[in-house]
């Protein structure tokens, strides 16, 4: 089973490469991370997704160690636009910043081209035509094959696509995060743009492993997210326990059920779960091997959705950087 991004056929389940460098507790060793990526390629993964901010470039560097000998096996995506250091912290999608960022990413990735390069967030300070124009120049120069955007709303996607055709939109999409259903899902389908779902297993929450978020490491980002809070988690855990039972009855892992649900939402859907565990990586890759009935997928969607989940997907400070349409607060 293959799907298409930027004219390239890839497996619908790609590999998110953030976890090896950032966000969810202590990352694995460099040696283990590189080994994980090699095992992913051996399994058949052919879509790797990283970004310049993951570990302040560390994720790209680790991916680069693999690409230097196996570049032709990978459809490579990376991103720019979020500034995480110092006084300039925020979003910068100016042509100058993106042009330099592409050069920096190419060096870390040890390659002469990136197949898909995203603007990681919408920058309201820069005209869309200017940002897209800079990416078009990079495409013409052969440094990137195509461009995409992450967490943009439908109107801005249409505007950018009108300047130069967009290959992909990446945003959070899972059973418990449905914001794309407010417009982006239909817009991307209409325009023939791939929709790439990050955090498709709800940041690991619905995999049936996590029971107590207070035991997460202090630097784990999930500790600051409302759905994992002391008030909201018990309510969400009760849903997850029922979801785990549903997956077991269907003969799949909870992650496989979650991934199959995402992929079922349209022929243009892709998912990029991240993990540091080889077995999880294998399970994710084979999530589509056992086709589940529409009734099982419907039951999963009825159980965990925007109306049943407690808490917003992001803390307030992060919500301010998201352009994707949002649900009205209850």
TrEMBL record:
A GO term from the CC aspect: cytoplasm
Highest taxon of the lineage: Bacteria
GO molecular function: oxidoreductase activity
Domain NADP-dependent oxidoreductase: 12-299
InterPro entries attached to this UniProt entry: AKR, Aldo-Keto_reductase, NAD(P)_OxRdtase_dom_sf, NADP_OxRdtase_dom
Tagged with keyword Oxidoreductase: yes
Pfam family of the protein (one): Aldo_ket_red
Keywords: Oxidoreductase
Protein name: Aldo/keto reductase
Organism, as annotated: Altericroceibacterium indicum
Taxonomic classification: Bacteria, Pseudomonadati, Pseudomonadota, Alphaproteobacteria, Sphingomonadales
